[in-house]
Design a protein that fits this description.
CATH superfamily of the largest domain: Zn peptidases
Radius of gyration: 25 Å
CATH class of the largest domain: Alpha Beta
CATH topology of the largest domain: Aminopeptidase
Pfam families: M20_dimer, Peptidase_M20
Shape: elongated
CATH architecture of the largest domain: 3-Layer(aba) Sandwich
Subcellular location: Cytoplasm
Bound molecules: 2-acetamido-2-deoxy-beta-D-glucopyranose, zinc ion
Number of helices: 11
Family: Belongs to the peptidase M20A family.
GO molecular function, one term: metal ion binding
Largest sheet: 6 strands, mixed
InterPro entries: Aminoacylase-1_M20A, ArgE/DapE_CS, Bact_exopeptidase_dim_dom, N-acyl_aa_amidohydrolase, Peptidase_M20, Peptidase_M20_dimer
Strand content: 15-25%
Helix content: 25-40%
Number of strands: 21
Distance between the termini: 63 Å
Strand order of the largest sheet: 1-2-6-3-7-20
Number of domains: 2
């Protein structure tokens, strides 16, 4: 017979069971410790401790028998790009690159339940709390620990494997991956395929990203005759600007509607959001209230799937969102690459026409994992620079059953999920580096 009192007792006992049910092995504990050690190095902007990260990573990689190289793409040499190398038995084949960025976004400690740089490992839940736990300081430790396991098992890669740790991803990558892909050093690596960061999955299916959206911005400026606050007239600057804000909002609703209806992923639509508005005539007490200003402007964040018809969007901005006949002008900032070196959209194919995709997919399955439908990432990563060079790249972070906490307060990764990720990378590295095709 069901008895509420028994149920409550059982619930209390369950909650008291330490996590995980079986204790961690010595190797697993040391892997968690290395993850914590790396998280404790303060690599958050605006003052990332790149030297501290290098001092941790270089001896760590050397202890695993990997080659180490440090590159600099700034004159002051304050932003190291670290390359770790496990040579393959056939160095003539294109190599595999496993990428991650060293930097992270800042944290606001007052909103955290554990200090963001303490890397507290909660014994009750197994969670390791730290800025960077998901984005993306788990990755290099998982890559290196997977390599440790493969070496211990006597595995010898056919293709050379490189691990890159790059600066400045969170601030656009200009002194990091953007310059790296243009360098002789990158060309010399002869990269055939890259894995980069992805995002956590709420379900038990791993997420994988085959493209990043393009990040553009545009500003619309309106001019018009000034007038008394009491007068109704056509052609005022604010009125004209409000009309186009409405037009943009209509487009935005249609795009957002596809996401709400589940027809498109958030990365598969064009997002356009107003981020600032500026108008009015300042007065000592605020703004002049009885005057309609002669100038007004609005700024938009605009993000496009790389498969989008770029020319059509530019035409739309010119003709519908900032038409000159409404006394509007615009400035469009198209940041980052739009097409690869061969003029193709920055997309890595996820069907059998891309043999790397099949190797990736089979490796996930052989690890006992399930893959969700491949997605376009709604934000950006350094993978876009590598795709620009015509090199296929997938965004992947092995985090299932995990809330998406990148850039958020109380970012954490559970120990079990972290350790499982090491196994997944063992399967991936084994398969990718053995691929002869
Ligand atoms: C544009 O500005 C001109 C000059 O101020 C004005 O005559 C005209 O009515 C304005 N047009 C619109 C559509 O606001
Ligand atoms: C793979 O996908 C691309 C892009 O969607 C498509 O153009 C191509 O025909 C597909 N190839 C195969 C073999 O399915
Ligand atoms: Zn990241």
């Amino acid at each position: 017979m069901f008895h509420l009192r028994h149920f409550l007792l059982a619930a209390v006992l369950l909650a008291a069971v330490p996590h995980p049910a079986h204790p961690l092995t010595e190797l697993e504990s040391s892997q968690i410790r290395r993850f914590q050690d790396y998280l404790r190095i303060r690599t958050a902007h605006p003052t990332p401790d790149y030297a501290g990260a290098a001092a941790f990573l270089l001896p760590y990689a050397a202890s695993l028998g990997l080659g180490t190289t440090t590159l600099h793409f700034t004159a002051c040499k304050s932003k190291p790009l670290i390359l770790l190398t496990w040579p393959g038995t056939d160095p003539s084949l294109p190599s595999i690159l496993l990428n991650s960025h060293i930097d992270s976004v800042p944290a606001e400690p007052e909103h955290w339940i554990h200090p963001p740089y303490a890397a507290h490992h909660d014994p009750a839940t197994g969670r390791v709390y730290a800025r960077g736990a998901q984005d993306d300081k788990c990755l290099p430790i998982q890559y290196l620990e997977a390599i440790r396991g493969l070496r211990a098992a006597g595995f010898a890669p056919t293709r050379t494997i490189h691990v890159s740790l790059v600066p400045d991803e969170e601030i656009g990558g200009e002194d990091g991956h953007e310059k790296f892909v243009q360098s002789d050093e990158f060309r010399a690596l002869n990269v055939g395929f890259m894995l980069d960061e992805g995002q956590a999955s709420l379900t038990d299916e791993y997420r994988v990203f085959y493209a990043d959206r393009l990040v553009w911005k545009f500003i619309v400026k309106a001019t018009g005759a000034p007038g008394h606050g009491s007068k109704m007239f056509d052609g005022a600057a604010v009125g004209n600007l409000m009309d186009i804000i409405e037009t943009v909002a209509g487009f935005r609703e249609a795009q957002f509607g596809k996401v709400k209806a589940g027809k498109s992923g958030p990365g598969e639509v064009v997002s356009v959001n107003p981020v600032y508005m500026n108008a009015g005539t300042p007065s000592p007490t605020g703004f002049v209230m009885n005057m309609q200003p002669s100038e007004a402007e609005v700024g938009f964040d605009l993000r496009l799937p790389p498969t989008e018809d770029i020319e059509q969007i530019i035409r739309r901005i010119k003709e519908e969102w900032a038409p000159a006949h409404k006394n509007l002008t615009y400035e469009l900032m198209m940041k980052g690459p739009v097409r690869d070196v061969a003029g193709r959209p920055l997309v890595t194919l996820t069907n059998e026409s891309n043999p790397w995709w099949s190797v990736f997919e089979h490796a996930i399955i052989s690890s006992g994992g399930k893959l969700a439908k491949p997605e376009i990432l709604s934000s950006t990563t350094d993978a876009r620079f590598v795709r620009q060079m015509g090199v296929p790249a997938l965004g992947f972070s092995p985090m299932i059953n995990t809330p998406i906490l990148l850039h958020d307060h109380n970012e954490f990764l559970e120990d079990k999920v972290f350790l499982r990720g090491i196994e997944v990378y063992q399967h991936l590295i084994r398969a990718l580096s053995s691929f002869k095709g």
